[in-house]
């Protein structure tokens, strides 16, 4: 009896007292706030400390890695598919482990000792806390996976990143100037082929992030090709058909399509698209600039991208812009609507028609509006806007953008954008551009002055002229002679020529 009594007393001494519903919910909430804390509150100090040590140790390792790689390393991580896969997997594993700790804490409170109502309440609270933990971690995993998918779909792997004087992980060294051809394809159900009706060369100074946009009209004739190339042999006077001098098939906007139809005349590189290679070689010859990469955006995709970013604000101008109203053949029909005049916040479809409306305006008006739209997007949309709407932006980008920019170049570009505030200016080769070498005194797309275009590019991209410091003032002698005073100063500062400026037109500003 004594043994039985003693055993009964010993068992009751080691059995933990029942946990009330309030204490149970508090422990579960503590586990959701910090894994292991719930166990400590329940008196399971050793288990709780171990769980908490694992969790805090993991956070410490992440913080140490972040500090060691620095801001540049974090930016590289954003465009590293391997790192993004690791982040996705890690978030999923942490989410599962954290939810398991919450439920483990709930079970440790021995809910079977409580009433059915309290058991249901405790289980509901534990499940809700699991969902609260899962939402941010799941969203982070989804965001990282979406970013990885976007990189795989839009950007090619490119060459292995090699930095001069540094490890491969440091990334490639950007050239002093990076020239990217921006193309807008105006293909649609009412059009044949995919002509590049928007052609803008973005020349980026990789030391300051200052960017100059050179807009080229789609109707440039006699587009040149590199000397000695098969295309130059076929078109010695530029892209033109003397048997059909008014044919729209021999304008600059059809060079890419012609190259696809006649691949033997187009260069084999730098891309797999012979048509784009031919267009890039022509524009490079025209402007005297090497074309490093291209970015093509479909017009419909541009509308989706602007919608994903929440719209854009521009000054439409004093008159409303018709939506439609002109067929591909040039016949006027009733517009489907209008983009209102004045300063407007436009959705994607309105912004698209702001950029492409042809009724009551010409190609050069459209070029000005397109440059203004690009400027407005750059000025108004911050990285925070992209992150906030990242899923929609990524979907629109993957569906509408193609580019030859390799993933290995993205870290350096991200670092450049992070270090400098981009400064944007533009030049348009349209009839408003003065050209003293022509009879009209203006640039003529039908007969482009190629040497003049190259001079404009060189003058625009030339570093600004810094005036020489003024010489120190000359202290007059204490007793100047009358004759010396009458003669005045013996020399004057050398005049500094004014810097060359190139006019830039813009139909509307944001």
Describe the structure.
With 510 residues, this protein is α+β, with helices and mostly antiparallel strands. The protein folds into two domains: 16-154, no CATH class; 170-461, Aminopeptidase (3-Layer(aba) Sandwich). Helix content is 47%, strand content 10%. The protein contains 17 helices and ten strands. The strands form three sheets. The protein has a six-stranded mixed beta sheet with strand order 9-4-1-2-3-10, with helices on both faces. Strands 5-8 form a two-stranded antiparallel sheet. A two-stranded antiparallel ribbon has the order 6-7. A hairpin with a 5-residue loop joins strand 2 (196-205) and strand 3. Helix 2 (21-33) runs parallel beside helix 6 (116-154). The protein starts with a helix and ends in a 23-residue tail after the last helix. Mean pLDDT is 80; it is low at 1-13, 160-170, 188-192 and 477-510.
CATH class of the largest domain: Alpha Beta
Q: How many domain regions?
A: 2
Mean pLDDT: 80
How many DSSP E strands? 10
**What structural class results from the helix and strand content?**
alpha+beta
Task: Give the SSE string.
Answer: HHHHHHEEEHHHEHEEEEHHHHEHEHH
CATH architecture of the largest domain: 3-Layer(aba) Sandwich
| Oligomeric form | single chain
CATH topology of the largest domain: Aminopeptidase
Shape: elongated
- The number of helical runs is 17
Major β-sheet profile: 6 strands, mixed
Our Rg estimate from Cα atoms comes to: 34 Å
- Low-confidence segments, given as residue ranges, are 1-13, 160-170, 188-192, 477-510
Distance between the termini: 94 Å
> Helicity, in percent?
40-55%
Strand order of the largest sheet: 9-4-1-2-3-10
**Going by CATH, what is the homologous superfamily of the largest domain?**
LCP protein
Beta percentage is 5-15%
Biased composition (Low complexity): 482-510
Protein name: LCP family protein
Biased composition (Pro residues): 467-481
Region (Disordered): 467-510
